[in-house]
């Protein structure tokens, strides 16, 4: 086995027909709708949104269908890098690719379902469960050595990340009536589970996951170094979301201050 693979070795594609078919179906549905909208009303669906959505599909393909998957047992850092691309990079690109003219009413079945799924407290509970449960040693070990669990974890990170970023970026304002303040607090709270896990990996004096205790790691790293680097990857991946949350909180505070200072001056009491 090559323990010092280059970037081209890691990015070489493999073929899982179900993943390829799913991505092709999603891409075809999106770009057919985009082309139809551009013919009828070009201004409603900007090209840059389609570019971002296409980038999200490409990154999903590379993260789930590259040869890096075959090296999971030899690099926790590489595994975590793939998961963070699916959880923190693909979702904002995909959400920003959603056109703003889509109208979903709360009274429709789809609107009722989405209003529940995109409720900040529901999303926060689901995301915390994904992060905490799958980073308990028994669950994380299963995701490394079991084929079924190995496919399930990236899927959950992707779906959880899509829900989190949908709350933060609010792509469906007709069913997402949340202010900057609500979204800012949500962004900060949703980033805490990842930061807590990353801190544990960074400062743990021993390797926490059995498959990596005596693993032959890539690039001459020790298992403990691999775990520490994974902590840095997770922490850095969560920083953009937390930075955006702080910006939203600041915008909310400025909005409150402007609202309090823009009122009419008090009138003198009548004689």
Automatic annotation (TrEMBL):
Protein name: Cytochrome c oxidase assembly protein
GO cellular-component term (any): plasma membrane
Annotated TM spans: 18-35, 47-64, 76-98, 110-134, 154-172, 184-204, 229-254
InterPro entries, alphabetized: Caa3_assmbl_CtaG-rel
Native source species: Deinococcus irradiatisoli
Key words, A-Z: Cell membrane, Membrane, Transmembrane, Transmembrane helix
Domain of life, per lineage: Bacteria
Annotated localization: Cell membrane
Record membrane topology: Multi-pass membrane protein
Pfam families assigned: Caa3_CtaG
Main location: membrane
